[in-house]
Amino acid sequence: MLLLSFLPTSWQGFATTLAKLCQRHGKTLPIWWQNAGKVTCWLVVCWLELCSDIITRVKRYWADSADGFIIL
After folding, report:
1. Which residues of 36-45 are buried (b: 16+ CB within 10 A; e: fewer)?
2. The predicted structure's pLDDT at residue 13
3. CA–CA separation, 16 and 38 (whole Å)
4. What is the pTM of this model?
């Protein structure tokens, strides 16, 4: 749940659901499926962080360009 404090509010519900699914079903799977699940969850979290960063930069770009200045 520590990760939820770093995610934007819009992603927190998805992250909680994904964590519950991984915790509930991950322990009953064969070890190679568990490893694949861990990698998949890690990739999803990294992708969400990247998208959040890109969206933040685009919002800043449009807000700053409206004033006549472009700061990235």
Report:
1. eeeeebeeeb
2. 76
3. 15
4. 0.41
